[in-house]
Amino acid sequence: MQEEIVIIGAGQAGAQMAQSLRQGGFEGPLRLIGDEPHPPYQRPPLSKKFLAGDIGAEGLWLRPPAFFSTNNIDLIPNTRVVAIDRAAKRLNLENGSTLSYGKLVLATGTYARRLPLAGADKQGVVTLRSIADVDAIRESLKACNRLAIIGAGYIGLEVAAVARALGKEVSVIEAQDRVMKRVVSETVSSFFATLHLSHGIDLRLNTGIECLQGESAVSGVKLTTGEVIPAELVLIAVGAEPNDQLAAEAGLDVDNGVLVDGCGQTSDPDIYAVGDCTRFYSNRYKRSVRMESVQNAIDQAKIAAQSLLGEDVDYDPLPWFWSDQYDIKLQIAGLSEGYDTTVVTGSPESHKFYVAYLKENQLIAVDSINAARSHMMARRVIGETWRDGLLPEA
Ligand code: FAD
To answer: Domain named FAD/NAD(P)-binding: which ranges (predicted)?
Structure first.
């Protein structure tokens, strides 16, 4: 009989890992343990359609509930793993019980980064990572009129768009001089800033925060200028940190993410890790990377499953990502870091264009705005030598 595989974390990567193992012919015992009450679900709609109320929780499920029993995958919800005993190959669960494993897969994802800000512990100060978070935010939004969002990254801007459509007064406060600065060029930042301003968002760039004000509940955000932005709800959307504590405490190699090789294997040959919680060396980018995307969760899990089943694999993906804000779809192919030239095709005014990023005449990334064909094409051609006119009209 094949030895038991246990996956910790029933999210995007964990669910994919379980499915790929079964599809790849693994017939041994397979457990998928998650600390949330739900079956594995997609997170991208949390800050989009689910927050807007356009879809219910069932619309988030990654697989139909029967999928797990049909495929003989023992899905164990509401269960948190608190320690890994590598010598005994045993897990300690929060409920006091233990579980043994033959091979272990960590798919523990990330948690929302908090800010060391005075007042951040007040009622009405929230982060967004899970269904439970959105349920609470939706409930608060019903009773409040003014929302302040700290951080103009994807999640902050997506929530701003939804809240505005719900008729709320929304302020977005960003320390940097432009929105989504970490991931897109000035052209794209400027397009999205204009978009949000045109929808009535109070966008504050280059803005520092002194503290969050209020008695037990938050009532406003005090800026370093002394100005107070009134808000009954404050969303902190300043990025995420990897859930790598379990791995670190078990003595695995960890460096802002569980370190894995191109097979998804950690420093312990019996333990793999996949998805947002991992960091790996990318030959493509000549540095270690930690990715937070559906693409990475799915592709890395597929590769690691193949490796667990004995295949020779090496993971070095072309990353891609998307974000929906109002009626605009931003799709990103590749990482644009280090570009020396940008080429804009189409016009931002028409809300349909793309920006190609080149480094030493090589196409390295493309941001497509309402230009899905360019995005798909970009994913195919990046890595080949850039030639003028290789991409289609926006
Ligand atoms: P997760 O999906 O986070 O799953 C990890 C699971 O492990 C969680 O359920 C967690 O509770 C559980 N867990 C952690 N520790 C333990 C433990 N000790 N015991 C048991 N269970 C544990 N990506 C895109 O590509 N496009 C988007 O538009 C996009 N939008 C997003 C919007 C939001 C609001 C968020 C939060 C994320 C978004 N992402 C998007 C990112 C994407 O959702 C993640 O990259 C993806 O979910 C990563 O999958 P994962 O399985 O690694 O982690």
So the answer is: 4-301
